[in-house]
DNA sequence: ATGCTGACGTCGC
DNA sequence: CGCGACGCCAGCA
């Protein structure tokens, strides 16, 4: 395609992260995989680290690791900001881990599909 | 310039 | 099934 691949990696991470529905969570690896570089999951976290003060705000709190653990909570303004934000969305966390992570997990690759179906249910 | 680290994940043993 | 090593690639000492 075009320079899409030339675009900064983190910009795409932001777009995907912003696409995460309210009350849902996803993993770094899922985003990386969605971008085509599944082994670059570290870069996803690196990109999210730069979301500090970006606009529109990037819901980095909705991104956890593959285990559903809030590994990046200490990188927020406050260590409790992540769990608080998740809790505010109805996502309960226990022991730095998202409860029912499997049910709340949202696959970025399903973005188009979800948009089409509009998830009306 | 080189090497280690890091908000991770996968593969190998 | 637990643990170690590798890959990804930008930052930083």
Short description:
The chain has six helices and four strands. By secondary structure, it is mainly alpha-helical.
Write the layout of secondary structure elements.
Elements: H1 9-18, E1 26-27, H2 28-35, H3 41-49, E2 63-64, H4 81-88, E3 93-94, E4 97-98, H5 101-104, H6 111-117
Parallel strand pairs: 1-2
Antiparallel strand pairs: 3-4
Helix pairs in contact: 1-3, 2-3
The structure holds a DNA duplex (13 and 13 nucleotides).
Structure description:
- This protein has 121 residues and is mainly alpha-helical.
- The protein has a single domain (3-104), classed as Winged helix-like DNA-binding domain superfamily/Winged helix DNA-binding domain (Arc Repressor Mutant, subunit A), CATH 1.10.10.10.
- The chain has six helices and four strands; from the N terminus they run αβααβαββαα.
- The protein has helices at residues 9-18, 28-35, 41-49, 81-88, 101-104, 111-117; strands at 26-27, 63-64, 93-94, 97-98.
- It has a two-stranded parallel sheet with strand order 1-2. A two-stranded antiparallel sheet has the order 3-4.
- Helix 1 packs across helix 3 (41-49) and helix 2 packs across helix 3 (41-49).
- The termini are far apart.
- The mean pLDDT is 87.
- The chain binds a DNA duplex (13 and 13 nucleotides) through helix 2, helix 3 and strand 2.
